[in-house]
Amino acid sequence: DLYRSFILKSICNQIKNNNASIRAVSFETLDKIAQNYYCWLDDYISLIYNLTIRTIEKDKDLVILQAIELWTTIANEEFEMNMDEYQALNEGRYFLSYSRQYILKASSYLPELLLNSIKTKNKEECIEEWNCCNAAGACLNIMSQASPREIIYSVISFIDKNISHNGLQINIESITLAFIAIFDGIGSKVLYSYVKKMLVYWLLYMEKTSSDLYDILSLTVGKISHSFPCMIRHFIDRIIQTLLINLTNKQITYNPCWCLNEILQPFGREGIVDWCFEAIASVVLKKILFRAYNNKITNELFEIISSLIINSSIRNEAYIYVVLPYLLSNLNMSFSSNEYTKLLDTRETQSYLCRIIGCAIQKYGKKINPIFMEKIIDTLSQITFDLDNTSDYFLEEEVLACIGAVIQANKIKSLFKIKKWIDFLIKCIEHTENNEINSLAIGVMGDLCRTIKKEIKPFVEKIIDVMVSKLKKNSTDKKIKPAIITCIGDIALTHEFSSKYFNIIVESFKKIIISQQLFYLEKDNESLEINLKIKEAVLEGITGAIQGFQDCSDYLIKKNLFEKLKWISDYIYDTICKDRLFIIVKTSIGLIGDLSLSSYQIKQVFQKECWIFQLLNESKNNTEDKIKIIGIWAFDSIYN
Question: Are 191 and 182 in contact, with CB atoms under 8 Å apart?
């Protein structure tokens, strides 16, 4: 205690040092102590609070920023403790730590200081940079989560006080920033009435304000649209009109683009923005194809086009059919012409164009003209060839998604193009370390094998070799193993293959189960979720292998594979005992029935197992119709 007291008091004494850098480092040190030793702050919190008040009122920005960061950390610790306490009470267990309510005790004056900091400093600081104004807003947000009633009341009082003054024109920016500070999280649940009250002011100033204030106001309207879309329904025409006017300017910022995208999410599906569909699409396409912006803005503009396409109605089909050839032409030019889009990052433009075309295929599928679809397929085949010698994860991801959309919408019959795509998919699976690319390529490979049966037959055994090899590698991330197992199961279900590959598949599943049992030692939530996905994938994969293997019953008798399949029964029993989730129970019962039908020897063993008899009898009386139906079928497969 003496050492602790000496250390903390020494740090606090340095906050009074004449050197601003030392004062800032002292607050930074207290920040680290609060993160790791929150429970020991009781004796010193009053001193820390008084030093913080003095710093925010009189000190330099460098020191103020660190002082605010300290209270953000304290608020975050208390919020996490409150959540842990709530979870512990729900689960009926004791909680090891509890909040000392420092934020509640500081709510009498500290929020007012932070709000005044927002009010006085936002005029002189850039909203994009991390500064005292932004730090104060972030601190208020976390404080409002830790002690909602007191902090939100303080902010609302600040807003009311500024609205009541005649100087609304001076204070509108501060009011908006204060509102944004507490809106995310709990604030959005209790500020419903204030949203309607303030929305009138914000729209008025959006229509006649400067660019800096417009950026903040559009961010606010976007947040409201995300949380309360019904609130802006009455003003939707005015909002879209002012956003479109802003998009026609030479210089545009991120927040208006984000705001427009947030509005399109809820209202696009309802057809409320159909009246301005062509105007939005034309303005945005002109911006992204003929002018350079930073990646963040360009990405949001392409997201707007994708959102328009996904949420489009029958009224907009004609426009999309007209624009698609133009977009495909630009995509082709980006690979063939060195002069294309000099002002833009070509790879990113190609990725975005692939995304838009993929969205259109997902939306309209077989409605797209077959001749035009062939051109899309030719373009994708050429892109996959060009990507063989490069490694661009962003472009590969969009190309894979686009190929997946084409596969689901059409049957590809050209062996040459199928081979190109398979080679590209194998390259993504074998030689790419990015897990998202791996997972997406495996999913597309499964779709390809499931959708195109006859034409892909020559490549099936090669694909299985690649998948099994990937599954056995120790370096393969456990997160993508469920996708690999599911893909192998899909292939096994839809294609004929030799007994050699039946053995390989069964043995690879057995090995993954052994490694999964070791994986049980990890008890964090992520590991448990992955473990559950692996269980489900293994059950479905074995089901696919059993159902898909031709003349399975004769083969089992001749080659005495029963001994090799005995472990499946033990695995099902172990899985059912540990997890009674709907999908696990349903798949397990289906697999029991399939195994019984595939081998009389297995059927005889299952007839003697008491746990199977009990499980199937329970399923026959289950309230879930799907489990009940499959339970009756499995019972008849074994006992009749």
Answer: yes
C-alpha R_g of the chain: 31
Q: How is residue 185 annotated by DSSP?
A: T
- The amino acid present at 405, given as its one-letter code, is A
Instruction: Report the 10 Å Cβ neighbour count for 13.
Output: 12
How many CB atoms are closer than 10 A to CB 551? 10
For residue 164, what are the contacts with CB-CB under 8 A and spacing of at least 6? none
Q: How many CB atoms lie within 10 A of CB 100?
A: 17
| Token couple for 602 | 């297995």
DSSP 8-state code for residue 617: H
Nearest to 451 by CA among 407, 399, 493: 407
**Nearest-angstrom CA–CA distance, 112 and 158:** 8
d(CA 543, CA 493): 8
Q: Do the Cβ atoms of 263 and 287 come closer than 8 Å?
A: no
Residue 411 tokens, joined: 């049957």
95 — alpha (psi -120 to 50), left (phi > 0) or beta? Answer: beta
Question: Tokens 């590959």 sit at which residue?
Answer: 501
In terms of Cα–Cα distance, which of 576, 580, 492, 496 is closest to 542?
492
The CB density around residue 160, as the number of other CB atoms within 10 Å, is 12
pLDDT tens-place string over residues 581-628: 888 888 889 888 888 887 777 888 888 888 989 988 888 888 888 889
Residue identified by tokens 């660190």 is 66
Supply φ then ψ for residue 622, to 5 degrees: -70, 145
pLDDT at residue 91 tops 80: no
The first and second tokens of residue 320, run together, are 């999309």
Q: What is the DSSP string of 141-181?
A: HHHHHHSHHHHHHHHHHHHHHHHHSSTHHHHHHHHHHHHHH
Extract the tokens encoding 103.
Answer: 């934020």
Q: How far apart are CA 496 and CA 525, in angstroms?
A: 38
Q: How many CB atoms lie within 10 A of CB 41?
A: 18
Q: CA-to-CA distance for 596 and 577, rounded, in angstroms?
A: 21
Task: Annotate 325-350 with DSSP letters as a single string.
Answer: HHHHHHHHHHHH-TTTTTTS-HHHHH
Using alpha carbons, select from 100, 122, 102 the residue that is nearest to residue 110.
Answer: 102
Question: CA dihedral defined by 45, 47, 48, 51, rounded to 10 degrees?
Answer: 160
- pLDDT tens digits for range 154-211: 888 888 877 755 444 446 777 888 888 888 877 777 777 778 778 887 888 887 766 6
How far is residue 313's CA from residue 299's CA, in Å, rounded to a whole number?
A: 24
Query: In angstroms, rounded to a whole number, what is the distance separating the alpha carbons of residues 596 and 606?
Result: 7
pLDDT at 313 over 70: yes
Helix (H, G, I), strand (E, B) or coil at 495: coil
Q: How far apart are CA 392 and CA 244, in angstroms?
A: 33
Cα separation values, 128 from 84, 217, 293, 376, Å: 33, 14, 16, 40
| Distance in Å from the first CA to the final CA of the chain | 76
Q: Phi then psi for 437, rounded to 5 degrees? A: -65, -45
Q: Is the pLDDT of residue 291 over 90?
A: no
Backbone angles phi, psi at 444, to 5 degrees: -65, -40
Contact between 117 and 71 under an 8 Å Cβ cutoff? The reply is: no
pLDDT(262) > 80: yes
Q: Are 450 and 494 spatial neighbours (Cβ–Cβ below 8 Å)? A: yes
